[in-house]
Amino acid sequence: MSKKFNFKELSIYNGLKGKPAYVAFKGKVYDVSKVFQNGEHAGFKAGTDLTLDFAKGPHQEDIFNNFPVVGTLADNNGIVQKIFGVSAQQADLWLRLALGIVFFAHGAQKLLGWFGGYGWEGTMGYFTQTLQIPASLAAVSILVEFFGGIAIILGLLTRPVAAALSVSMLVAAFKVHLANGFFLDLAGPADGIEYVLVLILLSLYFVVKGAGTISFDRLISDSLSRQN
């Protein structure tokens, strides 16, 4: 009879002290007792969800066809898990670092005047007087770029931060860049939308996919899973 496991219940079936060895993969729980010796095989431990780490091992996904399904793995963390859940892609780290560094650098220009920027007062003046953006929204935009860039680099709260950054860039696209066409203006300040379009799409990628396995979100997600 199929059973619905939470993470804490799954951890009981660790292949030790006479317990069967179960593992979860993509929402299904398998009995792998016949190959897991002393609760371990190919560096993986029984009683755990292998979905994110399986690609590191020597097997293909079809290996699970050799094992009986004993149940399903429930996600008991609800909205919290949806925020901190990550994809299985380690390579996303490089995309995340690129995006985070770009936003941090531009945020530092606006907030601190680093890298030749105008700093808080100069940027606020431009946003509120030239672009007619309300002061509260202008302030949020500056802070989102600076602190959001740091968060993206760390892989912390990646989905909501990436969503905020995409909204900020969408406003920039319509308020500043769209009137200048598509291409960057390398000879002057009249840049088109191509650069912010890339930032918007890359930000939306992380809204959908999450931070990837090398991230603080992964640590938080794993910690929440062990508590349920």
Structural topology:
Layout: E1 3-5, H1 7-12, E2 22-25, E3 28-31, E4 40-41, E5 44-45, E6 48-49, E7 69-73, H2 78-84, H3 92-112, H4 119-130, H5 135-154, H6 158-177, H7 194-209, H8 216-226
Parallel strand pairs: 1-7, 2-6
Antiparallel strand pairs: 2-3, 3-7, 4-5
Helix pairs in contact: 2-8, 3-4, 3-5, 4-5, 5-6, 6-7
Q: Quick gist of this model?
A:
This protein is of the alpha/beta class.
Share in helix:
40-55%
Which strand order do you get reading across the main beta sheet? 1-7-3-2-6
Note the beta-strand portion.
5-15%
Structural class computed from helices and strand pairing: alpha/beta
Report the average pLDDT across residues. Answer: 90
Span of the ends, CA to CA: 22 Å
Output the radius of gyration: 23 Å
**Number of domain units:** 2
Multimeric organization = single chain
Major sheet, described briefly? 5 strands, mixed
| Gross morphology | elongated
Helical stretch tally: 8
Q: Can you count the beta strands?
A: 7
Q: Unreliable stretches, pLDDT < 50, 5 or more residues? A: none
What would your notes on this structure say?
The chain is an alpha/beta fold and 228 residues long. The chain folds into 2 domains: 3-74, Flavocytochrome B2, Chain A, domain 1; 84-218, no CATH class. Helix content is 50%, strand content 10%. The chain is built from 8 helices and 7 strands, in the order βαββββββααααααα. The strands form 2 sheets. A 5-stranded mixed β-sheet has the order 1-7-3-2-6. A two-stranded antiparallel sheet has the order 4-5. A hairpin with a 2-residue loop joins strand 4 (40-41) and strand 5. Helix 3 (92-112) packs across helix 4 and helix 6 (158-177) packs antiparallel against helix 7. The mean pLDDT is 90.
